[in-house]
Design goal:
This protein is mainly alpha-helical and about 260 residues long. Helices cover about 60% and strands about 0% of the residues. The chain contains twelve helices and no strands.
């Protein structure tokens, strides 16, 4: 899965009491909920290590400890709500799909050409160019519009930074949901190498988001044909309706290899 690029090299980090508390919260995930039949101990260990690393090494390391704790708590609350849903599997898929869309919509707007080459270099249909238009994107992106509304005097550089922070929070949730897939029985990944659907799904959402933003900004599309964006955007419907392997259904339905469409 693509990561939120760190805004610098690795740093040595000693957590204060706030970070320690939110890491303790993350390590209690398995204990607070049964997590769909998975191993509570394994899940707790995975979340604890992942949260510590993510809050240490990404742009989120500059957040106030209370905000970090709230972020972890909100994620746990999402998992609790999923488990209590009438159909936890479909609720999980819906949450994952909505989070992927929100992440992709922001990611393509705050991606620089250098980050694109480093992190998404294999994807032809996202550019890293839209960050130059980020203020204009407030017309159609609610998160960008809210940042400008709340920080009315922010510069373009500050707007870019705030947008990237919001995207990093969404990526934390998205990767957390994928960790739940791997660590529990609710939606296990494909056994065959290269056949799991999660990463292709995220690529499709990024391509769809880039195309939609370009349309709204009046920029030329990067896609090979007019139907390609529709094929990519349809991936989320396959995920949401509960297909056992959405990548298989996508490739069978369109008669195409997903890897050749990115």
């Amino acid at each position: 899965m693509a990561r939120c690029p760190p805004d610098g090299t690795e740093v040595q980090f000693t957590p204060d009491s706030g970070e320690k508390q939110c890491w303790r919260n993350s390590s209690n995930v398995g204990g607070k909920i049964a997590l769909f039949g998975g191993s509570a101990k394994a899940i707790s260990a995975a979340f604890s290590g992942r949260t510590q690393k993510y809050l240490n090494e990404t742009i989120l390391r500059g957040l106030h400890p209370e905000l970090k704790e709230n972020m972890v708590e909100q994620f746990m609350n999402r998992l609790i709500a999923i488990e209590k849903a009438p159909n936890p599997f479909l609720a999980f898929r819906e949450e994952l799909g909505n989070t992927a869309i929100a992440y992709a919509d922001l990611q393509v707007l705050c991606l620089t050409p250098e980050e694109k080459a480093e992190t998404f270099g294999e994807i032809r249909y996202i550019s890293g160019e839209l960050s130059s238009y980020i203020r204009q994107c407030a017309k159609f992106n609610q998160d960008v519009a809210r940042i400008i509304w709340e920080q009315s005097r922010c510069t373009d550089d500050e707007l870019f930074h705030f947008t990237k922070v919001n995207g990093a929070v969404l990526l934390y949730y998205l990767n957390g949901l994928n960790l739940v897939r791997v660590a529990t029985k609710i939606d296990p990944p494909a056994h065959s190498a290269g056949k799991d659907w999660f990463q292709p799904f995220i690529r499709s959402m990024l391509i769809s988001a880039e195309h939609a933003a370009r349309q709204k900004l009046g920029l030329p599309t990067l896609c090979a044909d007019d139907i390609a964006p529709l094929r990519h955007s349809s991936f989320v419907a396959i995920v949401a309706r509960g297909a056992a392997n959405p990548l298989f259904e996508w490739e069978r339905g369109y008669g195409r290899k997903h890897s050749e469409e990115c």
